């Protein structure tokens, strides 16, 4: 499928989605949100894709939020529809049965921060700036920001960020638990590649089951979450990958997983 505003590159099982409007700091306009949704569907259904990386083009921004120029003409209903579109895309990323890495190469603001939080693992450059500045525009986060942020860093800290609209640097965001690792800007993509290759070498069914166990268990009571985990654990015992992993350990050799 051809894309105009994003880029999708698939190489050695790793799909890299690049938000590509660097002059507008990769602000997410309606067309970009639609293409991002299509790309997420495409990589979900492509068995050759084992890991997904999402990043922004240029060296300034991951995504500086939703495209503010489009807000002027939006009616409340348009905004509601746009929110639902973006929320569906972000939910699709969160529920993608493959690991998704955010490579945060600069500003991750508003809808950009919300996109980052929907990813499974976040690696960022030391120059990244993170925030939910919507209150400065007289609005509130609309693509999960009030929900995912408080689940990730706690209610009080989320309120401080959302109510002030302040941006924070990468180190502070890491301290809060919003980022997994921070790297010098020129090392970010090579570190992301290393992580993506590591994940791509694992058994795809086990990764899918592990992600599902965490996602489905997150908002439910422990007992049900653990029961669900047990079923997914059992399911792994029916895979070729499980036999390969166990045999490889016993034969003292590295496993060769097939994702079956
Ligand atoms: N939208 C449109 N254009 C943007 C933009 C944005 N969010 N952010 C930056 N740009 C554009 C600038 O207008 C400028 O364009 P030109 O003037 O060159 O044509 C260009 O990118 C470079 O930006 P600056 O000149 O401002 O660059 P600086 O380095 O001086 O400043 C900055 C960088 C990131 C601090 C600044 O650009 C900034 O404050 N940008 C706005 C950040 C922001 O407020 N983002 C949150 C947007 S609200 C919803 C779902 C989600 C959301 C809303 C609704 N529904 C589904 C309904 C989310 C809302 C948001 O994300």
Structure in words:
Helix 2 (76-94) runs parallel beside helix 3, helix 3 (111-118) crosses helix 4 (145-153) and helix 8 (204-218) runs antiparallel to helix 9. This protein has helices at 30-45, 76-94, 111-118, 145-153, 155-164, 170-176, 188-200, 204-218, 222-236, 240-250; strands at residues 6-11, 14-19, 51-56, 61-63, 100-104, 107-109, 121-125, 129-131, 167-169, 181-183. With 260 residues, it is α/β, with parallel strands linked by helices. The longest helix has 19 residues, at 76-94. The two termini are 27 Å apart. The strands form two sheets. The chain has a six-stranded mixed sheet, sandwiched between helices. 4-(N,N-dimethylamino)cinnamoyl-COA (DAK) binds next to helix 2 and strand 6.
């Amino acid at each position: 499928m051809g894309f105009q505003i994003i880029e999708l590159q698939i190489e050695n099982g790793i799909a890299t989605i690049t938000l590509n409007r660097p002059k507008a700091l990769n602000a997410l306009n309606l067309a970009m949100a639609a293409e991002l949704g299509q790309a997420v569907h495409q990589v979900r259904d492509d068995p050759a894709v084992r890991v997904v990386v999402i990043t922004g083009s240029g060296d300034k921004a991951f995504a500086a939020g939703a495209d503010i120029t489009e807000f002027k003409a939006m009616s409340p209903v348009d905004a509601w529809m746009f929110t639902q579109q973006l929320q569906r895309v972000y939910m699709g990323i969160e529920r993608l049965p493959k690991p998704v890495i955010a490579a945060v190469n600069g500003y991750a603001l508003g809808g950009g921060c919300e996109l980052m939080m929907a990813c499974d693992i976040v690696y960022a450059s030391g120059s990244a700036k993170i925030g939910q500045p919507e209150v400065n525009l007289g609005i509130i986060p609309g693509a999960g920001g009030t929900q995912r942020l408080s689940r990730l860093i706690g209610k009080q800290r989320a309120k401080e960020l959302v109510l002030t609209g302040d941006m924070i640097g990468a180190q502070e965001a890491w301290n809060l638990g919003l980022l997994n690792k921070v790297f010098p800007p020129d090392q970010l993509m090579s570190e992301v590649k290393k992580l993506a290759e590591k994940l791509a070498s694992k058994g795809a069914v086990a990764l899918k089951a592990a992600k599902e166990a965490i996602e489905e268990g997150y908002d439910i009571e422990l007992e049900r979450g653990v029961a669900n985990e047990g079923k997914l654990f059992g399911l792994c015992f029916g895979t070729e990958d499980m036999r390969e992993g166990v045999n490889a350990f016993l034969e003292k050799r590295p496993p060769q997983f097939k994702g079956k």
